[in-house]
Write a structure and sequence with these properties.
Elements (H helix, E strand, L loop, with lengths): L14 H4 L3 H22 L4 H5 L1 H10 L6 E4 L6 H9 L34 H14 L6 E6 L6 H10 L6 E7 L10 H10 L3 H15 L4 H10 L3 H6 L4 H4 L3 E7 L3 H12 L5 E6 L7 H5 L24 H15 L3 E5 L9 H6 L4 E3 L4 H12 L4 E7 H4 L3 H9 L5 E6 L16 H6 L4 E4 L4 H13 L4 E5 L19 E5 L5 E6 L2 H14 L4 E6 L1 E3 L3 H7 L4 E9 L4 H10 L6 E7 L9 H7 L4 H10 L2
Parallel strand pairs: 1-2, 2-3, 3-5, 4-5, 6-7, 6-8, 8-9, 9-11, 10-11, 13-14, 13-16, 16-17
Antiparallel strand pairs: 10-15, 12-14
Helix pairs in contact: 4-13, 6-7, 9-10, 15-21, 17-19, 22-26
Length: 620
Amino acid sequence: MENEYKILSTIKSPKDIRALSHNETEELCAEIREKLIEVVSVNGGHLASNLGIVELTVMLHKCFNCPKDSIVWDVGHQSYVHKMLTGRFDKIDTIRKKDGLAGFPKRSESKYDAFNAGHSSTSISAAYGIATAKNLRGESSYTIAVIGDGSMTGGLAYEGLNNAGRYKKNFIVILNDNKMSISNNVGALAKTLSHMRLKPTYLRVKRRTEIILSHIPLIGNVFKKVLKRSKSKLKNLIYKNTLFDFLGYTYLGPVDGHDLDELENALEVAKKSTEPVLLHVVTKKGKGYEPAESHPKQFHGIGKFDVDTGEPLSSKKGFSYVFGKQLCTLAQKDRKICAITAAMTLGTGLSDFSRKYKGRFFDVGIAEEHAVTFACGLATKGIIPFFAVYSTFLQRGFDQLIHDAAIQKLHVVLCIDRAGIVGDDGETHQGMFDVSMLNTIPDTTIFSPCYFDELKQSLNAAAYMCDGLVSVRYPRGGELYKPQDLEKTSIDFDVYGDENADIALITYGRLFSYACSAKEALEKEGISIKIIKLCRIKPIDPKAVKIASKSSKIFFFEESLVAGGIAESFGYELKKQGTSYYYKIHGIKDRFVRHETVSEALRELRLDDKGMVEIIKENI
């Protein structure tokens, strides 16, 4: 490795970057890109965003003194470069692996990670809190929030901007714009002013002009106010007329995010400001790797791939794909059906829908709260909105689910992708909260299918057999084991095995596949069980409860939090039967689940077939 990455391998902390020459810094950037491609091709992860932010990350660490100065990364999926430069290069091959580096910033992992991240639009609020705390403690250092243009579509970003605009110094927001470019229609004057504003003399000239105007007797302050309100070129020279300026920021940019000299110059100017700064940096997502440059969406979050071709090593179709196809089928027959996504068209399987039904497809940006209330507005006029969202991101819309959807009894369908354990992305992305969250909302229906055909049936039922708020939740990836003798009889629940067996195993979603394997293993040891497979998990079918009550030993396995989960609700219904039985709940207890593969996590949680066998044998 020493020979392969001759400069990168010598960077043990950010101070080592400051000793590099310009040519060495450029070589460092090239080596970082090479290492990024190598690691992500093996481990999977977020590639395009990291390739695009290489130069900016390097120059941030060259111009600032971390960890005294704090860098807060929005979302955090672009922090791989930051990790390489802050003493973790020797561990970068372990990223997103069990016991390895996390795929997002993690305060417990390094003193250079100022704030944990995983969801978007949090950086400015967090950075403002950090800066304020420093001020209260009498500390003098810089606080920098790095936020992408995608995250700027989230409302929290603007709440943070609005409040942080009152902070007077050492506060910098870097807008990493990897979609827009400096287009020709900006005009020569605007371009000239942009370059002028980035000269080290700009802020000094601006401050001196204001001081001079303030000291001109009688007319100075009047002229300054008129100048601020005017549309003259002189005004534009001194007061940039942008949203950020109105919020109290000195706007700098746009800056070429791949030009080391321009970045260094801009950052040094930002450091000299006595007002909060918004530095607009333009970067190219996937920079330096042609497949990622050409297809940045596909390389945003990707599994293992062939470095030479950029082709994924696995092309297995999963639940997201089947969902997208089925929604297209429904939309073809019914013009009332619309699809909504919060900046996750590809990830949620809606690419085909977005092309075929453009007028009924709505990407609202990273704004889950808005997405839910927007769907509710559609529903008031008889439209059937399907909001496709990852389980972990639905959490942001909890208030809207209650106040805007459920209370009004509006027919909105939530298509909850990545339900349950998702694996490598870790704590911030595990879909382990949606069941407990939705289970608390009155008059809500929840489906949790195990197989593709059940997913299709659940979507049909959600559209035409249910009222009010309906959820269809499904896991990441594809179908698992399906017994050949399994017969589907109901959309609500099925019984697999001898209905009179004294041991009942109850579960839902993909855990049913593991339950089937566990059943076969137990039968080899002479232990007979029946499996009650729930597909509609709320409301619980009374018939399923009655069948379960015939067994004296009942085991409920749930790939979700135990607290507030379906197992507790089922146990309550069993208790009302008044029969004598042993009831054991096994799910995710009061904890977060770290990053590791799905199979590793399920094994550790004892929610796989081996865990089920172990728990049943221990308790009979």
